[in-house]
Amino acid sequence: MLSVALAGKPNAGKSTFYTAATMADVEVGNYPFTTIDANRGVSHARTRCPCLDLDQRCGSDNCHDGKRYVPIELLDVAGLVPGAHEGRGLGNQFLDELTNADAILHVVDASGGTNEEGEPVEVGSHDPVEDLDFIEEEMDHWLASIVERNWESIVRQSRSPDFDIDDSLTEMLTGVGATELDVARVLRRVEYPEAPRQWTDEDRQRLAAEIRAETKPIIVVANKADIAPEENIDRLRDAAETVVPASADGELGLRRAVEADIVDYDPGDDGFDIVGDVSESQQTGLEQIRDVIEEWGGTGVQEALDTVVYDVLDQITAYPVQNETKWTDAKGNVLPDAHLLPDGSTPKDLAYAVHSDIGDSYLHAVDAREKRRIGEDTQLEEGDVIKIVSSAK
What we know:
By secondary structure, the protein is α/β, with parallel strands linked by helices.
């Protein structure tokens, strides 16, 4: 399952974002290091379900009238402070938890209501742009320290006549979440000495920064946008490549209102309807959330998840079925499963995503929309419905 981590300084709203996105019970507080142990939960990316092309909607629990929610893992860990790679705060624990994340949502307090240590201050008194770079810097230092700790081993390996520095670096870096392809891409664009003894601290730091950039893409969630000075959002957008304004508090309020049968709302909607009896204070709170949605097109929580999955990680959603005519599984369930795959994936990749045995015994595939057999090297597209034919029983 795709894994997305929430990063940021303490008290930026990570745990509120996590709770809103997973509806899991976690401690949320207005003080640094509310989160001590990592929280792992299931959230979802939202996409258009192919059942909209049928006469009836599918019966999947993850489909809400054609809005398909595809599971991903969401990780919320302790907040970072400057110096985390040296052990400040709970930094080492946090950085270790990031090893297997596919991407990072950097939750920033866009209101400027917390200082660099995550301590509450007057709204607008701290510049949130100052919070952008330190996540990358801390991760770079952390990765560089891992490279440094393992460097003597690489130096010893270099004494062997069949030593290959690329192979040694690949073996080391795959241990911190990089794939062989990731390492190969980085080594092609980074200049470095062939002899390990000639490497400097700057060489190792540069390698670490490139590996982090390759394996841990980061998008910024400008949280607390509902109370942030407008110029803060503009400046964050100028300073970072991808910024999603958000109100995690607003999303959590809506999700809890849905549970209480007060509002009709699906995550990612650009509006909601009040369907239950509400008190005056509840009405006021909901209207404040409505103002946020009208200004930003949503609360931003679902948009952030969708952006990181489909835009940053370049994933597509494919739907395996057994009956290519009715788009059902063996039990007659319409479009029961959805799988996230990297853009460029093939039917055989989908077969392996379903089960390794299905992939090993793959014979061919059928495009259920076109009712035709497709080649093993066909690149799948978003929303494809595919029948996998294999010899597996």
